[in-house]
Design goal:
alpha+beta; 9 strands; 2 domains; 4-stranded antiparallel sheet
């Protein structure tokens, strides 16, 4: 049996290389279309603390947005903002308590930013006084919306009122 000619082997080699490039390109395109890597994506984080100074309760917080995608995300001023709500205990007529939310303030955030670059992280700090109201303050809820054209991201977080430090010794503490 004679061996195949060099021309035939070169043709087969070229066909296999072309097929490998076509399959690789198709796989890359499929991952691009299916994947969310190049779509606008934000990761939003909210932090904050409730404090009392001179009988006045206030909330100091920060909103952070990180662009975790690979495309630039424009930030619209209209529709982008934060809402602060005071959560208070209100007595029920049947006994016990329920939580009632009172809107404290709505304000714009990220108004100094026109867009967020891929991998960029921006943050805006804020501080608001929590007005007196009926019932004891137990927490503050922050709701954030970031608008970018047809896409809106939102996040919400609740910060509990810190428990006062009790300086009295309890029975289970050693002397």
């Amino acid at each position: 049996m004679p061996l195949p000619s060099k021309e035939l082997l070169d043709t087969i080699d070229e066909a296999v290389k072309v097929a490998a490039v076509v399959v690789g390109a198709a796989w890359t395109f499929l991952n691009y279309v299916r994947g969310r890597t190049f779509r606008s994506r934000l990761d939003i984080d909210l932090t904050g603390t409730i404090s009392e100074r001179g009988g006045v309760e206030f909330f100091v917080g920060s909103c952070m947005a990180k662009n975790v995608g690979l495309s630039k995300v424009p930030v619209q001023k209209a529709g982008t903002g934060a809402s602060i709500f005071a959560m208070r205990l209100a007595p029920r007529k049947t006994g016990g308590f329920r939580i009632v939310e009172q809107e404290v303030k709505v304000f714009q955030i990220f108004d100094r930013h026109g867009w967020i670059e891929p991998g960029e992280q921006i943050s805006d700090p804020f501080a608001v006084t929590v007005p007196d109201g009926p019932g004891a303050l137990v927490a503050v809820r922050v709701a954030v919306m970031i608008s970018s054209g047809e896409i809106t991201w939102s996040a919400s977080n609740i910060t509990e009122l810190p428990k006062p430090k009790n300086k009295e010794k309890t029975d289970d503490e050693p002397d």
